[in-house]
Predict the 3D structure of the following.
Amino acid sequence: MNILADVARELVGMFVADARLSAAILALVAGVAGLIGMLGVEPLVGGGVLLVGCHLILVEAAVREARKRRS
Amino acid sequence: MDTASWGIAAPAVGAAFVASLVEVVEAFTIVLAVATLRGWRPAVLGTLAALAVLGALIVALGPLLDRVPLHLLQIVIGVLLLLFGMGWLRKAVLRSAGVIALHDEEAAFAAETRELAEEARRKDASMDWIAGLAAFKAVLLEGLEVVFIVIAVGAGRGLLWPASLGALAACVAVLAVGAVVHRPLSRVPENTLKFGVGVMLAAFGVFWTGEGLGVEWPGHDLILLAFVALFLATGLATAALLRRPAVAAPR
């Protein structure tokens, strides 16, 4: 059971190292899917939003963590 | 293989190789600690048992992947890659900026040896079992990440075999070097490799998620190289920014 718990922890940890980062990525993907699927936005524009959004999320997550750890 | 195929095959094989290198080095440290303390028998048995479990997992999951519609597979794998890759990249940026400590294989080896010795004092009779279990857990947990990366970078374009070979090459490389030096591979530049893997996985994540959502990327597979360059630039710039205390200090 201990090993199963460790495996479960490892699997969750693989994808949710930072809950806010993970939530932001999921929200971004859902938003882009909505833009393309429901609002009829050109898929390539949606792809651009996805690409730029990922970079912004990465920078925000790193800066936020650095500020937290240095406070 | 044409240029476009190489454009995606090379990052896929490279990501599988480098990511596996990092994970295998970490697993090797613990297996070596087990072998040093209790001999190679429990270390090898634990490792083989974990490899058998991982192999069974691949055999069970492989055929399932063929049944999932391609767009759904691309979205699911793309999102998982984004979650996994961005997490690695964020941590590598923070390590590169000196915000969190670098991973130290010598320290990990010492800690594992200490823990096993402590267990040995408490439960002497079952020590080989505990040591074998430690090797089993290390290989299983690090191997899970390798399996995911191989499936994630390989499944979308039928590159499972090349990606698997990349991972296998990393295992062989670590074992060969480890057999010669017989100590933790502390000189492997783990954070640099993790930075590179995070960049590649995040780039793959955007690519697959976009394709799954119906985006036809200009340049098709070759745009992946541009994504890699962009994530690398953003990661390096963020790390440089965070090295300046004024930026990272709380307001």
Q: What stands out?
A: Residues 17-70 of chain A form one domain. The CA atoms of residues 21 and 55 of chain A lie 11 Å apart. The interface with chain B takes residues 3, 6-7, 10-11, 14-18, 21-22, 25-26, 29, 32-33, 36-37, 43-44, 46-47, 50-51, 54-55, 57-59, 61-63, 65-71 of chain A (CB under 8 Å). DSSP finds three helices and no strands in chain A.
